[in-house]
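[step 3/7] fold_predict: job queued, chain A
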Amino acid sequence: MREINPQETTRAYAFEMWMQAPNPMVTFFKTLDVSRLLKICRRHKLKFNMLMCYCIGRAAVQVKEFYMLPVGEKLMQYDTIAVNTIVANSAGEVSSCDLPYSDDLEQFGSDYLHLTKQVAESCIDHDLSADSMVIGTSALAQYEIDGAVGMYSGIFNNPFMIWGRYKRGLFKTTLTVSFQFHHTQMDGAHAAKFLDILQREIDEVKFV
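[step 4/7] structure written:
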């Protein structure tokens, strides 16, 4: 990552308006149709959470604002994106695992299985935040929730997604997600575009 001058970017006005705001975070909610992901999970014996993380990364790389992030008082530029997942570890607690995004689903899935197993066994977080812009995720898959709003700590400005248990319907399966983002990083239109792209990627994901 490298520091960039906000005035030389499309985020100049947002940087001036939102960097000193008491709470610069915005949260959107969206209900996604995840029927295709479940079919692929069953057919290829893949983890649902892995596929969600892959689709999130695949959608994010198509929105240029994800490659910028306010860190401290600076605006930083990244060349790569990673997706974080929370892992239940061997101590009965949770650890954090950053997964490098790869457009190759098979490679991403292999990294997911290897890194989450490593973190679960060692209870040591796997951190890529110095190298990649990390999208946080938290899957509360055993619980039915309608949404969640993350707490702004003033330390981590990364975008964050939360979801609970998916809901099976007669014709489709849905999943409600919350997406929290720093207003300096992107505007509402960028976030809404990302969520629309995420639905498209879920609808079109393929595993060969």
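[step 5/7] annotate
The chain has a mean pLDDT of 95.
Residues 105-122 form the longest helix (18 residues).
exit 0
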